[in-house]
Design a protein that fits this description.
10 helices, Rossmann fold, globular, six-stranded mixed sheet, alpha/beta
Length: 253
Amino acid sequence: MPAGSDVILETRGLSKEFRGFVAVKNVDLRVERGTIHALIGPNGAGKTTCFNLLTRFLPATAGTIVYKGHDITDESPADIARQGLVRSFQISAVFPHLTVLENVRIALQRRRGASFDFFRSDRVLHEFDPRARELLAAVGLQEFEQTHAAELSYGRKRALEIATTLALEPELMLLDEPTAGMGHEDVDRIAALIQRVARDRTVLMVEHNLGVVASLSQKITVLARGEVLAEGDYQSVSKNPAVVAAYLGTEHG
């Protein structure tokens, strides 16, 4: 049955086995266009493995992945990114010794199909500046454009990473632990940023902070031991006895 126009990403029976260990088992996921969809679960539930399968950083052992109605199960990570399914990583992935503006400019070059042309003329490189500045304004970093990325606070580095991800013009943006390791103020800033960038795109995020999940997500899929345990809005999944048992049993027992 083909994915409906309201479903941007769908998996059917998605599974991954590592030498006899089943990390992801028969996951059926439907991400609706224009929503923020959270993937949550205790440590070791298979969330990041799922992301790796969706972006083809890992090949699936079984199952299919359908994006915008097309089977992408066997496509390359680069081809998938070009189609608008773009991932930001749990560990900040910016060039520390380049400025904030240069980081975004490199991402814009990549979107245009150019190589990382550090040796192109200034005139050609500066053609990307207006769009780079728009993206920095969108993530609240316009005051830091000449700051080296290494000098940014952790939360602002994550904002820069979101700007570089936005430079690739994603239709579906995968965020892996966007608020991990942040203090309260940075968490609030990044949560507001996610809400803002989700206005005209779809977001699928792995997130441990259940406060962020509750405030941002329209739909939540709970994984435990690689399988879908529950799905629904925050109110329904947070009261599900199986979900409560999985969290308490794994993280506190």
